[in-house]
């Protein structure tokens, strides 16, 4: 007798950019779980420093009504006059599910790009932080089926859930939250980012880029994550 078990889907996503009136240019392949591909593409391009605001995105091609890509490909439409050199940007790098910046010398650049963070004096009750992991887990629909997927959730300072994402890669889950902030013009506001797993440098870097002042992780953070939060005036719990 065989027992059937559901597993988390992992497939490649081809992210492309097309300036108005031009042909699409390939930017990256990302191994991900195929949900919220529009948010993933937007967040990835923002945290890579390619896009800078929601107004840089005119729309998406190859995305259905639920935000999933058709054929594992998404094209982000940007204004013709957007000052980015797509030919120079065409790096053809491959991002796996566990690491989005592996092998890339971006630490100093990340500090510079994150310098715009809103260092407001947030006050959060310890009891609020303690409730966030369970509040996130209750909304993880894919995790309930597979038990094998990461999540990131955006909360208000008083613990109200605003958005949640799931992905086989924890950095992808964060990029989906960043994409949500980007498309809804909510960057650099006072929110809490709750993540499953540990908070490494890359998670902190992405949160800092989006101006999220507080990060809460289920597991212990890395040394570089702690150092980065100290340098940028962020709270890490």
Automatic annotation (TrEMBL):
Q: Among its keywords, does the record have Cytoplasm?
A: yes
Which GO BP terms, alphabetically?
Answer: Mo-molybdopterin cofactor biosynthetic process
The answer to whether UniProt assigns keyword Ligase to this entry is no
Q: Which SUPFAM superfamilies match?
A: Cytidine deaminase-like
GO terms for molecular function, please? sulfurtransferase activity
**Which keywords annotate this record?**
Cytoplasm, Molybdenum cofactor biosynthesis
By its UniProt entry, which PANTHER family does this protein fall under? FORMATE DEHYDROGENASE, SULFUR CARRIER PROTEIN FDHD
Q: What is this protein called?
A: Formate dehydrogenase family accessory protein FdhD
């Amino acid at each position: 007798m065989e027992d059937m078990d559901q597993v988390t889907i992992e497939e490649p996503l081809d992210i492309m950019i097309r300036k108005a009136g031009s042909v699409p240019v390939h930017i990256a392949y990302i191994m991900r779980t195929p949900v919220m591909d529009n948010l993933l593409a937007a967040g990835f391009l923002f945290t890579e420093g390619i896009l800078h605001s929601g107004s840089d995105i005119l729309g998406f091609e190859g995305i259905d009504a639920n935000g999933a890509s058709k054929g594992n490909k998404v094209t982000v439409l940007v204004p013709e006059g957007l000052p980015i050199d797509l030919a120079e940007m065409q790096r053809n790098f491959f991002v796996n599910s566990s690491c989005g910046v592996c092998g890339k010398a971006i630490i100093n650049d990340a500090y510079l790009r994150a310098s715009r963070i809103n260092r407001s004096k947030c006050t959060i009750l310890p009891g609020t932080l303690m409730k966030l992991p369970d509040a996130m887990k209750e909304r993880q629909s894919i995790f309930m089926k597979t038990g094998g997927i990461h999540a990131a959730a955006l909360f208000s300072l008083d613990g109200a859930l605003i958005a949640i994402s799931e992905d086989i890669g924890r950095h992808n889950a964060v990029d989906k939250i960043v994409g949500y902030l980007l498309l809804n013009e909510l960057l650099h506001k006072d929110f809490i980012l709750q993540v499953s797993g540990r908070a490494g440098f890359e998670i902190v870097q992405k949160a800092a880029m989006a101006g999220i002042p507080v990060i809460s992780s289920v597991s212990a953070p890395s040394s570089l994550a702690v150092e980065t939060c100290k340098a940028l005036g962020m709270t890490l719990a």
